[in-house]
Structures
1.
Amino acid sequence: MLLRVLALARIMFLDGLRRHALLGIVSLAIAAEAFGLLFMDFFGRDIGRASSDYLFSVMWMAGLLFLFFHAVQVISWDEERGAIYALLSRPISRSEYVLGVFVGLSALLIALLLLLGPVAYLTLLWIKKSLASVYFPELSMSHFLLAWAGVLAMQIVILAIIMLFSGLVRGGFPVLLLSASYYAICSGLPVVRASTAQHDGQGLNLLLQLMTALFPDFSRLDFKDEVLTASLSLDTAIIFTNFSVAILYACVMVSLACWFYARRDLQ
Amino acid sequence: MKSALWLASVMTAYACVFLLQESSATHEKYELSPTLPVQMQQATLGYFQQLGAEMLHIKSAVFLGGTPSGIDHESYVDNLADHFDAAATLHPKLLDTYYLAESSLSWINSDSVRRANHVLGKGIEARPDQWVLSFFAGFNSFYYLKEHDAAAEHLQRAAAVEGAPRWVGHLASVIAGRGGDIYGGLIWLRAMLADEEDPEVREFYENDIRMFENALTVQQALEQYEQRHGALPSNLDQLVPEFVPAIPDVGPDFILAYEDQSLRMMRP
């Protein structure tokens, strides 16, 4: 089974590499990261922090563009072009197909972030060397990797949700709308929780907590602020838990996507 | 030929309308547009929250850099304060927000200086390693708001931060005395002295401590007077000679002031 999934993932990966839109995203993101050298000129004091925030935002934006303009369409493209029938006529199940697409797109996402991550780190290193230490006191490579892994984990979760919606509905545009709505709820829910935590009843708080299980709080994987610190401000156990929640959540969503897609009418 | 003529006509029409638009745009009122409610920004920005705060900072800096001379500063102060407040909420660790808020907001009016201190409060909470933020808040309380007790409190917090210059603590004690807290000022000065190794600075502190101790005898006399008469005296002369043999000298670095039934150590 693993070999079949990997073979399909390889097709998805190569198909993605051939798409000009993806090359465009990569070019745009690298150009935007290079712009970080100019962005720092807008700040007079906390230059390192502003530059780091900007570069991670570029990585996040590039990942979102990939997810919302490529990943949401992959399964619908196969369905519209009839490629799905060619694939399923082979000894490959529908669940393996969904898993193969997920693994292939995850590999593309990792490749994208692997390309942008070192560019961002080198840009930060360049900025740090060009400034007095008071403006950029610390740059930790391990914390940079942690923040990078946080971006990847969040985007893998969104990809898993895209797989689920792709298994539930037909067409790239409905999947895009559902995924964008999901992301909006995930971003907004922590704000609602923070505002109701002080003065509303336990019932509502419990409901919002349950909703967070469905719409995870991405800010728990946002470690941008740690990049410029010498020692982590968060407990490593909390960090480990946050990553574990994200990975298990993605596993649940992909499993559900496989389950739904195996039972869906393809006509 | 016809199509070339048509294209030239359309392009000429566009150029005319564009120039008309540009000429009217140059007469637009110079103002800072309001920012969205911060909760809405938090909900919509997600991972871009920090970048959103930095954009608000840039927008504010660009606006302040281009303010025409003679502009009514009160016309934009509320929007500017909202920008800093939102930026500090979205990204409380970014120092630039606080530097810009302090330099642009604190001096306009009493409401704006309070808003500057409110913004600085977020920075003090998020960046406890930055003594300068508490110093800014202390300066605002002392210089603009004339709230000496609050100023002393901010400066004491600034002095407690690792790496803060030693003079901040001294300033806190002097301002505490000025605000009527002779006891607080004296305790702070003694703590500074105990921690000081430089003989010249020690002598400086010892002199201040002597003056504060002199003032403390008057403060204690005031308390005894109040216990006996049920009210504070209208002037310090009423304490002599029953409660204190003479009003002690605290000069030349200080003046002992008795205003609004409060004893203060003022700089001459």
2.
Amino acid sequence: MVETLWILGKTLVQIVIILIPIILAVAYLTYAERKIIGYMQVRIGPNRVNFSAIPLLRRGRGLGQPIADTLKLLFKEIIIPSNSDRFLFVIAPILSIAPALAAWAVIPFADGWVLADINAGVLYILAMTSIGVYGVIIAGWASNSKYAFLSTLRVTAQVVSYEIAMGFAIVGVLMAAGSLNLGDIVAAQKGSIIHWFWLPLLPLFVIYFISGVAETNRAPFDVAEGESEIVAGFHVEYSGMLFALFFLAEYANMILISALAAIMFLGGWLSPFQGIPVLENLFSWVPGIFWMLAKMATLLFFFLWFRATFPRYRYDQIMRLGWKIFIPITLVWIVLVGLFILMKLPPWFVA
Amino acid sequence: MIKFTFYLFALILIFAASRVITVKNPVHAALFLVLAFFSSAAIWLLLQAEFLAIALILVYVGAVMVLFLFVVMMLDINFSKLREGFVSHLPVAATIGVLILLEMVLVVWAWQKEIPEVAATVAEKPNTVALGEVLYTQYVYPFEIAAVILLVAMIAAIALTMRPHTRAKYQKPEEQVRVKRSDRIRLVNMPSESKD
């Protein structure tokens, strides 16, 4: 009994160690988004809220903004529409944040830094991300609002469609790595930057990342919240902390997609200088987690860059892209990967 | 500990399954079905059948039930009409119910005798690896036949429900992509005119 309790306590502490940085990262991702898009549009972005008590951060360029936003949302009233389904209305944001955070259990941040080192890690991630859509469905239906419901229909169709392309892209990675364990997938990419899977699986990498943008309903695939058409989408009726949970889930999912892309295609915690004579030794002291975070940050920057650059897709074009372009390409490339493995194409498929 | 977890999920499963048929609102019923799937997946995990458990969540919860909910939410169902004819359908429904129950009892009873063997082979290898090895070697023909049957059903479903609209206008993306500036824009030279 004591042992069970000890394991339970240890796991709880580990969960907290993972979750707190993620929630902080989400908060500061919103800040980064506003700043980066601001600079891309030649304005400054948030610059009013600073930590004036801390001397170094007194001129912090608005670094306190996410904290101020969170506090504001915390203290706002939660309004529950009178004709809504009360229980489902309240549980929907929880259903959307829970899988977004639960998926982090199997993500390895560096060699061996993983909460649950399970064999079917990739399957678990796929299952968790596919559950995330329930929050949106239930929110749209429970709020009993036409706009929310329309948005729900859009999101559901979009997410289900892009999940297929995403799943096939992951199948390619599984074939190349020969394992469902995320740690083993990274280990299979050892060698040099050329050995990483982005090169032999380039079309799958591109498709995975674009499908990831579509899965998280980010611009240019954000028809779910097309402001000009359906106000704000499935969360029109939500306010205060309930709204913040949806917000948190969206950004946590963005970070998750970036982490997965880094692990599956960009060699996870492996150093990009591996295999290069002088540089390898020069950078050998850098811990793996730094490379992992750097890769995630680069991919996240792409998310923000897309939002600042592309106009919103038309809905039928989204569906066309998913079903008629991405899925056929992934199917063809999976067959090709099979051929590569049969041919033992160096340097990736020699083992 | 495992026993406690099993009974917890089993209780939730039975509760959710019974709510599926007793609850009035069809959307709530579908959500209870999701809960039932979830609990049975958890019970499978306790059996170390991690592939089946995750596949159940991935396929049924993540895809099938999402589409199911999608349809149920959009239907405008008249509940009072649905409840009519409960008594007149009872004999047929009861017979089917008893038949299903009998089948289940038979299956479980026959399976229970062989349980030690099955459990021993399960633990040897990771579940996913073992399934993959058997499915693509020993059972490759049944597997392929099942796949073809599913494909036929899928194409048939599309063929049956697809009614081409004669008046509908379709966009042709390949033509849209090929459009050049000169196809859409005509520059007209207008000499400037005075007001009167």
3.
Amino acid sequence: MNNLSVNSTKTTPQISFNAESGVLEVSGQSYPESAVEFYQPIMDWLNQFFSNSTKQVELNFKLNYFNTSSSKCILNILRLFEKAHAEGKPVKVNWYHHEADEQMQETGEEFAEHLTMPFKVISFK
Amino acid sequence: MTTSETGNAEIFELYRYTSAARILMTFKGAFSQELLVELGDIIKKQHGDGNDVRKMFSVFVEMAQNILYYSAEKETRRSDGKEVGVGIVLIRDMDKYFCITSGNQIEKERGEKIYARCEELAALGKEDLKALYHQRRQSQTPEGSKGAGLGLIDMMRKSDAPPNFELRTIDEHLSFFILNIMIQKV
């Protein structure tokens, strides 16, 4: 399967999904004019990836801002991982936030409250 | 052009008003995605990246995107013919708070719905708003909503003082909706 790589713009995050290593990363900020449009190819890639992979997958979020419509798309990504976890696939998610960024920390903790898969909120300097 | 034709007296009044109202930034006009990105950058450059500014920035983006999508007043952009919404956004200095304000025209009926929604949300505590935000984020996007229908709840959650909102009548079909969100300075 091909890797997925999307360069960041001012309003869309960098996407680096490595199908071979199972390390996936979303970083930067997200407030595109249409979040649904931006995230659709990412959802498609993930759906395909999970349909023929059982290996260890690590998803790293390193975001510093996203708007409410992106928030919904991020939840949809997390639900795909939650589903994979429920199917017994080894997945884990790390939610990175700058140590001074209360909003990103709280957002990560709020996502964690409703998930059963391994989900860590990690601060960095 | 004479002084009265160029409206110099009004411009002077506008300047005096914006100073007295302690308006740190304002834009009135067509809110394209590109414009709100630029204005957002200006906010960050002027105020830094403290937690209050992060909140201010995110409230600003939700307000500007609401105007872009939902304002009843549309303008066709000369450069590419794209239709975008017209409105006004202000950031004001209110001693302990920054007040972030949006104002835009809205169809009367839709305005009444939004106003009622604001009243419901403003009556809720932070924990209830949090639960509602989560519930709404999990559910289907409401009809006619281009975003996630979450923006209003998110802004209410971020407000550090009771939000203020008003619907003013323009004519029998149109109203003007104003929303003020208060962000405590840190």
